[in-house]
Amino acid sequence: MSDPLLDRPAFKAAVFARDNHACVICGAPADAAHHILERKLFRDGGYYLSNGASLCPDCHYEAEKTTLSVEEVRAACRIDNPALPPGFSAKAAYDKWGNEIHSDGTRSRGPLFNDPGARKILAEAGILYDGTFGFG
Ligand SMILES: [Zn+2]
User: Fold this and answer.
1) Nearest-CA neighbor of 41 among 125, 122, 110?
2) Cα torsion at 90, 126, 104, 76 (round to 10°)?
3) Where are the domains of the chain?
4) Which of 69, 75, 95, 99 is the most exposed place for a label (fewest CB within 10 A)?
């Protein structure tokens, strides 16, 4: 099934329509059309329905902190063939900010490792500390 690139209003409308305007995690009213993988990772903005999820404020914060995983959000949306940013592998796991997550739970620095917004939220989550993932 094709998954056309949308503009911002069409993305929001399509995501909310698919999810019945409810948070896909907890069922509360959704207020955000969340980018499952950060839109800055995409050269085209990443406004694909398969990269969107309706979330309530609380679950949105968990998804931004990456304490709610990309895989959990996709599963809740029944997304099985997601649009991926250039260079990303369907076989690898990533956090929302594009850092690869390995089987032992460690993360590799992704393209947005130095992005201030990504750093702030990962620090709040306790995932980024001393400015790193705790290694390298
Ligand atoms: Zn929720």
Assistant:
1) 110
2) -40
3) 8-124
4) 75
Distance 31 CA to ligand 1 centre (A): 9
Give me ligand 1 centre to Cα 92, in Å: 26
C-alpha of residue 9 to centroid of ligand 1, in Å: 21
- Distance in Å, CA 63 to ligand 1 centroid: 10
Residue 25 CA, ligand 1 centroid: distance in Å: 5
One digit per residue, the tens of pLDDT, for the chain of length 136 reads 469 999 999 999 999 999 999 999 999 999 999 999 999 999 999 999 999 999 999 999 999 999 999 999 999 999 999 999 999 999 999 999 999 999 998 999 999 999 999 999 999 999 987 778 865 4
Q: How far is the CA of 136 from the centre of ligand 1 (A)?
A: 35
